[in-house]
Amino acid sequence: MNLTFSEKIYKCLISKVLIFNQRHESSVTLDQLIRVYKRGEKATDFNWQPLKTKAQCAMARVNMFLRLSADREVKKNYLFHDIDIVKGTDRTYEQEEADPFWDFSDLDFTSARTDLLLANIADKEGEQTFHPPALEEE
């Protein structure tokens, strides 16, 4: 079976939701991760990262969001931008004009690249845009 880029990202995000929810008292939803991923993609329009793909930047943001959701330490600069998704007060993919990769370390980007490679997403696919399927809203 030859999955499209969007199908691979979607399955990767589903896997992250399932693993996170099994390991933590708090839970995240697929819709939340899609919103964070899409914001991460959009953020690359404002801040290009050398040698990082759009998908790698977006997945690094997803991983940072999961740390935030698990009550693990995140940089204060990051907290401001996705706390609305944690609280359920925003339902958009919009990214404000700001430096969107707040103190992301090389490890954050390496971890994101590893997630993508495990989802069979090659670096050459990493500049594609994720088109999630329509999700039912609450």
Describe the structure.
The protein is mainly alpha-helical and 138 residues long. The chain contains five helices and no strands. The longest helix has 19 residues. The mean pLDDT is 83.
For the structure shown, list the relevant keywords.
138 residues, mainly alpha, 5 helices, 54% helix, globular
Describe what is shown at a glance.
This protein has 138 residues and is an all-alpha fold. 54% of the residues lie in helices and 0% in strands. Helix 2 (30-43) packs across helix 3 (54-69), helix 3 (54-69) packs across helix 4 and helix 3 (54-69) packs across helix 5.
What radius of gyration results from the CA coordinates?
Answer: 14 Å
Helix amount, in percent? Answer: 40-55%
> Strand count, sense and closure of the main sheet?
none
Mean pLDDT: 83
Structural class, from secondary structure content? mainly alpha
The topology string of helices and strands comes to HHHHH
Give the total of beta strands. 0
| Individual helix count | 5
Strand % is: under 5%
Distance between the termini: 32 Å
Poorly predicted runs of 5 or more residues: none
Gross morphology: globular
Topology:
Elements lengths: L4 H19 L6 H14 L10 H16 L6 H12 L18 H13 L20
